[in-house]
Q: What sequence folds into this?
């Protein structure tokens, strides 16, 4: 293969953006294995440090409630320059529509779509201060939900908790949305890992038709639902499609069932000027926050209430997509939401 190195006159800012995305991808791919490797080394090959580390592991065991109780957000971590360069790489834009006015006495659930390969737009915009979300929502404390497994691995969990990330369990959602004083804004990528299967440029295929757990949680707490659409998210990476029913697809589904994540072979760009690689492409992502949907509290919602709110949410999400897509997508006339 003929490798073409980047020109020497590329601006430093652009190089730093590439460095930021490389570090981000490395953590996503190797973060868990590195955490395990460091732990094994310390426990097996150090004399005194192992006892301190054992104390740390014991503390993790008793501290797992942090993942359900709002995390341990640290603003100085959320404001790392790394996140700004990561956002500028694509770049990511965070747009709050004029109709998105929030009551400081209420708790809101941001319902984010699509997941894409890594939910990059939602993560950068909400879990960090790269796009000043706290200034856009100054009266609310910001949270974002992620897999429980991200809170198990030593060291890696400290970064996750410092960003204010919490578990995607119903317990965690109820804890935050049920706070009586209000003033909480928490984000959930509804389609989750399953939606990653449908990641394909220009395709907005959402796993939503049978996802009603978040609807039930919203009804029980009387928390308004806020539709959020990341335009451009499917365009930054594609994947090797193994086909429905194939052995490798069954393997992917089995891993998702037991571990909560999907092993996918991504296709993007390389560090050098390859035609493909593991890095996301430099494609703009516009994270658009729509108008809240009011929810009447019902501690024991009926199936009819759940179905009605679910239908209303899909209608509002579709309206948001169809209204805003012309501002952010090329050939937008041919692109529509597909709900599965």
A:
């Amino acid at each position: 293969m003929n490798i073409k190195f980047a020109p020497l006159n590329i601006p430093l800012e652009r190089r730093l953006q590439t460095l930021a995305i490389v570090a981000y991808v490395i953590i996503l791919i190797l973060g868990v294995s590195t955490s395990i490797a460091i732990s094994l080394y310390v426990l097996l090959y150090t004399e005194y440090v192992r006892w301190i580390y054992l104390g740390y592991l014991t503390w993790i065991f008793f501290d797992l409630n942090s993942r359900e109780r709002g995390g341990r957000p640290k603003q100085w971590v959320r404001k790392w320059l790394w996140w700004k360069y990561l956002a500028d790489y694509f770049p990511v834009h965070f747009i709050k529509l004029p109709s998105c006015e929030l009551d400081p006495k209420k708790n809101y659930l941001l319902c984010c779509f699509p997941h894409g390969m890594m939910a990059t737009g939602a993560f950068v915009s909400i879990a960090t201060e790269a796009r000043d979300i706290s200034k856009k929502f100054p009266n609310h404390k910001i949270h974002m939900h992620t897999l429980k497994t991200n809170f198990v691995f030593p060291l890696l969990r400290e970064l996750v908790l410092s960003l204010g990330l919490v578990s995607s369990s119903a317990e965690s959602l109820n804890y935050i949305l049920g706070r009586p004083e209000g003033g909480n804004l928490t984000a959930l990528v509804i389609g989750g890992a399953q939606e990653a299967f449908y990641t394909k440029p220009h395709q907005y295929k959402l796993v939503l038709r049978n996802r009603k757990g978040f609807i039930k949680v919203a009804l029980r707490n009387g928390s308004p639902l806020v539709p959020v659409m990341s335009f451009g998210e499917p365009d930054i990476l594609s994947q090797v499609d193994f086909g429905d029913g194939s052995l490798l697809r069954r393997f992917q589904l089995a891993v998702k069932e037991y571990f909560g994540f999907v092993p996918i072979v991504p296709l993007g760009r390389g560090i050098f000027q390859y035609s493909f690689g593991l890095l996301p492409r430099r494609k703009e992502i516009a994270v658009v926050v729509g108008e809240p949907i009011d929810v009447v509290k019902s501690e024991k919602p009926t199936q009819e209430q759940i179905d009605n709110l679910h239908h209303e949410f899909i209608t509002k999400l579709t309206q948001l997509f169809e209204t805003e897509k012309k501002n952010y997508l090329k050939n937008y006339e041919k692109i529509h939401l597909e709900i599965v």
User: Anything to note?
Assistant: The longest helix spans residues 12-45. The first strand starts at residue 92 and ends at 96. The chain has a mean pLDDT of 90. The CA atoms of residues 17 and 89 lie 5 Å apart.
